[in-house]
Amino acid sequence: MLVLSAISIPVIVGFGYSALASVGVVGPAAAGFTLRSVINVWRDYSTWQSVGWTLWTSVSATFVAALLAIEVSVRAPRQNRVVSVLLAPLAVPHLGAALAFLLLLGQGGMLSRLAVAVHLTSAPADFPVLVGDVVGVGFIAAAVWKEFPFLLLVALSASAQQIPQSIEAARTLGARPSDIRQRVLRPQLWRAIAPAMVAVFAFLLGQYDMAALLAPTRPTALSLLTMERWSDADLSRRNEAHVLGLLALAMVGVAVWWQAIARRHTHAESS
Amino acid sequence: MRHQVVTLAMGVGALVAAACNQPPPADVPAAAMALPWDSVIAKARGTTVTWRMWRGDPSINRYIDSWVAPQLQALYGITLHAVEGQGAELINQLVTEREVRRTVGTASLLWINGETFAGLRRENLLAGPWAGRLPASRFVDSASAIIMRDFEQDPAGFESPWGQVQFALIFDSARTPRPPRTVAELGAWIREHPGRFTHDESFTGMTFLKTLLYALGGGVSQYAGGFDQTRYDAGRARLFAWLHDHEREFWRRGEAYPRDVAALHRLFANGEVDFTMSNNPNEVASKIAQGILPPSARALLLQDGTIANAHYLGIPFNAPNAAGAMVVADFLLSPEAQFEKMRPTVWADGAVLDVSKLSGHWPLSFDSLARDAHLVPRDSLRRYARPEVAPEYHQQLQQDWRDSIRASPPKRE
Question: Looking at domain A23-270, does it have CATH number 3.40.640.10?
């Protein structure tokens, strides 16, 4: 309990400062309570473009990584050599992963040069836009590559600890292996990695390094937009960065709340 | 339970002890600035100076770390500690430090110009005046409008000049044997080569847009004499019309822009675009030497005029070592440091000294350096140089460009 309060006090102080700054009470250009920053952010079209793009990429990357993690752990419930190789990206920092995908998928990158070499394309511009694109292919690919090993680890530890009992029970009741996979293993794995998925979603939402290299100009990632407001020459726009930060926190809060509700719902179902 | 309480108490105690371990209060910068020069040097000897500057260029870093720092160590026993920090980030940090009443800051010297200087002065974050107290300041080219006015502001001794640059386009003479020489020719070239031109979102890109603003508006004289909203609105309308006209032929049809000039250099080096830009045309020479740009790369000054500006050094209000900072600034202004900085293999940054005020071999050395084949000829630079105007133009243009050009989808007629 003491440790929890020791960790949460700085977070609460930071959150409180941000909340006060977004209504103009604190901050360098603070002129007293005003909703101007909130209104400016609300009215700005690029805010919502940013939120949309960031939500799309974070959610899809999380789900794709989770799907892959579950499929692998269903087929290889114990950590073997193949799985060890799949876990390798854990050691690579996110910035390194972003750079690698930029060098691989960019129009001036390795795949593009290969395409020119085999006469599939004749110029860098002919190669499809995979990084800095509106759909976020490059960003999602890099995010999946980085987050899949993490979710795989979580899924594997769930596989090893909680699930064997349920499988044993299903087998004694006469279930076929495919039934076991579909109706026992997979649902339990999804439930087990759900908290980790929320963590991954929250992380990708606020990711700066990968967005700086792989996100498009328009719409841009929420973290980049926040930094832009924070570094604006006009000091009063700094408070808009606080508003955007709180907006991101709110989205994470919704995800956490949703996961808590879903967990309570499944517990109610199973009891 | 007792165990946990004891552990927590120890942890808190350690934190409190660390927090109370403040560095000894340094003298207020004003005190150091009032001393005679010998006392300043005596005070600075054996100290450390933390200098916040842009660390994004390896050539500049090498000049500072491998030449300036050892010289300072040998001459004055000063340890120079160069760290990253520029623009709005400097202003942010100093404002925050003032908010928490931190009288002893982290940096003693800042590399600044233009809107950063304007912001720092507006918020009273700089100590001074001090620049005139440097012995080397008597060599500064005080007749140069580029040096004596920072974006039309009077440095007033709150910043000391360090170098000067001029905006230029960079092209590959092998790929583009007949480059455009004026803004009009550039427009036509972009039409004929769709997808091969763009600019970045940051400082260099905005300087390019300002160059266009001046050229399309009938010259920089239209914008001199402080910020004028009406003139700005008219100029912006013309500029944005030109941009809308050519957007579809920009790289990626104007839907994406490289984030900063380094990303643009990368696009150029990869062959994705045929032009890049720089605020320092002579960096072509140093970048070719490093193998970043192809040997056939050349600098191009648009004949409509390109923006020239100077960059400076400032001392923040809470500098822990103002005396050391002044000694460093004085050394950087010396003929030795200015000459070394100007060499094409080092940085190729323009000197701010009036060569006629120097003695000994210096006038001859500077002259022969200026005639180096790798540097853009000095008379070309001078003929096409246009001074910066009030910083509000830059700030508003950046804001409006982000809101109008970058935000909306390009018009498709």
Answer: no
